[in-house]
Design a protein that fits this description.
single chain, about 90 residues, alpha+beta, GMP Synthetase, Chain A, domain 3, 3-stranded mixed beta sheet
Length: about 90
C-alpha cells in the first residue's frame, strides 16, 4: 500500500525488533523542500488515515537527508534497520 503525505519527499516504513516484545514500526522520511513537518504531526497524519491498519502506524519517526537506495532506486530497508539497531545499541 502506498500512502503519501505532501510534507515528505520520500518515505519508508520498516519493522525493527523491540527488545523481546515483538517488532515496532519506524517511519523514515525525507522532508519536502521547505516543509516544517514534525514527528508528532507525521504520526497524527498516519493515525487519521482510514486506509492504514492501527498496527502499521509508526511508533517512531526519523527524518533523514537521503534514504539508501540500490541502483534501480529501491529503498534499502535493511540498511535503515541496521542503522537503527546500531544507534539503539550504543
Amino acid at each position: 500500500m502506498r500512502v503519501q503525505c505532501r510534507h515528505t519527499g520520500r518515505a519508508a516504513l520498516c519493522r525493527v525488533p523491540r527488545g523481546g516484545h515483538g517488532d515496532e514500526v519506524v517511519a523514515y522520511g525525507v522532508r519536502a523542500p521547505g516543509a516544517q513537518l514534525s514527528a508528532d504531526e507525521l504520526v497524527a497524519w498516519c493515525r487519521c488515515r482510514e486506509s492504514m491498519a492501527s498496527y502499521t502506524y509508526p511508533r517512531l519517526v526519523e527524518f533523514v537527508d537521503v534514504l539508501p537506495t540500490n541502483a534501480t532506486g529501491k529503498i534499502l530497508k535493511w540498511e535503515l534497520r541496521d542503522a537503527h539497531l546500531a544507534r539503539a545499541g550504543s
